[in-house]
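Suppose you are handed a protein chain with no further information: no name, no annotation, nothing but its sequence. What can you learn? This example shows the usual starting point.
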Amino acid sequence: MSPQSETAAPSPLETWPPQWSPSAVVLDCDGLLVDTEARWLALQEDYLSRHGAGLDPVARRALTGRPIEVVVAALAEAVGKDPHLAGAELLAEHEERMGGPLEPLPGVVDTVRAIAARRPLAVASNSPRDLLEGTLEGLGLADAFDAAISFDDVVAAKPAPDLYLAAAAALGAAPADCLAVEDSETGAQAALAAGMQLIAVPSIPGQEPVAPRRLDSLADPVLAEWIAGWEVRR
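A reasonable first move is to predict its three-dimensional structure. Written in structure tokens, the prediction is:
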């Protein structure tokens, strides 16, 4: 049985596959569609190690999925550098490491295409717009999304609900009728705060996002069967 959600009413996702289907779907990007989150975390650890610094496990866990600006500020403090200098160093190395081709995580392409054929679909990411658009283009999935909501489009990033609320509005759907899919604790908090139904697909060790349904990957066969049964509402 997956972890129970912290909402008052039972979630339709507690039955698998659900009898319910969403009016629209909102997906996270980094760590859900592609392993960029794992690469970013590895870069952070390398950077800290080179400076003889580190973060305790609680601080590391809380930073996962946060906006780049928040992460850079924490790392700059840990290594005793000006945030602007640390940020420039980290982003330069990030761009160098991300220069190669992007590989979608298991089940991503089939799941995204199946959803897009049946329901309005958005992506909601704590990444800046240029990085988000570059990732979607690199995966060959940019055309599948009706809306792409980035950190640059809202006042408050995840774990605030703003990104998910903006995505629902862009799709013309009530948040309670939307399905969100997330990989991190930060993202799960945001989706639940927006009032959405949530599937968690964690990809980073140590992350335990709270959700009414948790899957090992988007290649889950029951997920594919459930989506295939949705009537087309586009």
